[in-house]
Amino acid sequence: MSRNYLLVCLSLFALILSSCNTEEQERERMLKARARRKVALQKLSRVSALPLNVQAPGNNPTTPGKVALGKLLFYDPVLSGDQDVACATCHHPDNGYAEFRDISIGVNGRGFGSRRSFRQPNDIPFVKRNAHTILNTAFNGINHQNRYQPERAPMFWDGRVESLEAQALEPIKTLEEMRGRHYPEADILDEVIRRLKAIPEYVQLFQKVFPDPDPVTAENLGRAIAAFERSLVTNNSRFDQYMRGDKNAISLDEKDGFELFKKVGCANCHNGPMFSDYKMHVLGVPENDKLDQVDRGFEERFAFRTPSLRNLRFTAPYMHNGELKSLKSVLEFYQDISQGKNRNRSVPNEQLDTLIRELQITVRDMAPIISFFNTLNDDQFDREVPAEVPSGLQVGGNIR
């Protein structure tokens, strides 16, 4: 065997060995990265019972009188431009403080829930997005360690304001929700405050709960409604009981559904006590053809906030525009995404959220997961509707 031939063989062997080492190192690197990713997702997917107590901002402590005032305001259409829409019009206790519609009809509407329609003639558009339930919004922003800041709580599908106090005033200022066309946005709150000051009962109630020289203000209006909304808590579902130690609170099938919920990746975004990470995600939900314009969501990126999974019994239809009518259709939508099927032509595949694309849900998983969702329902909330409101207007707006 010649010396040159031997050198060539040794060189080839060294090259093969080096290649094998490189492949082995790359394989090891990928395995470590996958393990780190798995640990990170496991941390993300933590869920727990809701707290037994509710926090309030330091500048708006909850009192019985404030809650009672906020409740009257919540049901009183005096807060709307044409005095025909109340907060309760689209967030009524009979509908779990949400609305059984894809997107709402606010101003110039008549009727309740799915039977509500526009009066004619009409030039008011539909409300842009599905009505979130008010239930448990006291906990918005809570993380898996049960920590949250009520003054920083994210609100609305696009998180455009923080805190229930700020949220309470936004619908009053919005044309299609409560303001209507007779008042510009810059003037509507002043008009509402003028009306409230002209009603002696409201003046007395504001004076009792807000020890200010001028208690009837827009800021105090928001505080009162927020105090009432913060009282609408359902923190004793069967799931909460189970997580607090009652292992018989949910059935074996529901326990299987809970494990599948975590295993297939739902808990990557639906986590914490509220089953929401409160982050913005791009899903590619089909557009609602009742809207004149494409809804581009948060920062024009087609991103929307993860909704809570609590009380789904009361909050159909689902997603930011109510396009998915049942829980099964929601899970089928996520299955499509995991298989590379995009239902929204306006959203490129590469823009879809990576956490969503990692879902591994099958038809076989759906029934157990839906069974688990039922453990998150809790119907023990304030359903009492005031017999009358201080303005003398129809309670809840034009819903009858």
List the helices and strands and how they pair.
Elements: H1 3-44, H2 64-75, H3 87-90, E1 109-110, E2 117-118, E3 154-155, E4 161-162, H4 164-167, H5 170-173, H6 175-179, H7 185-197, H8 200-209, H9 218-229, H10 238-243, H11 252-263, E5 280-282, E6 303-305, H12 327-338, H13 354-357, H14 363-373
Antiparallel strand pairs: 1-2, 3-4, 5-6
Helix pairs in contact: 2-9, 11-14, 12-14
List the keywords.
single chain, 400 residues, mainly alpha, two-stranded antiparallel ribbon, two-stranded antiparallel sheet, 14 helices, 38% helix
Provide the succession of SSEs: HHHEEEEHHHHHHHHEEHHH
Instruction: State the total count of DSSP E strands.
Output: 6
Strand proportion: under 5%
Mean pLDDT: 92
> What is the share of helical residues?
25-40%
Low-confidence stretches: none
Describe this structure in words.
This protein is mostly helical. Helices cover 38% and strands 4% of the residues. It contains 14 helices and six strands. The protein has a two-stranded antiparallel sheet. Strands 3-4 form a two-stranded antiparallel sheet. A hairpin with a 5-residue loop joins strand 3 and strand 4. The longest helix has 42 residues. It is elongated and about 110 Å long. The protein starts with a helix and ends in a 27-residue tail after the last helix. The mean pLDDT is 92.
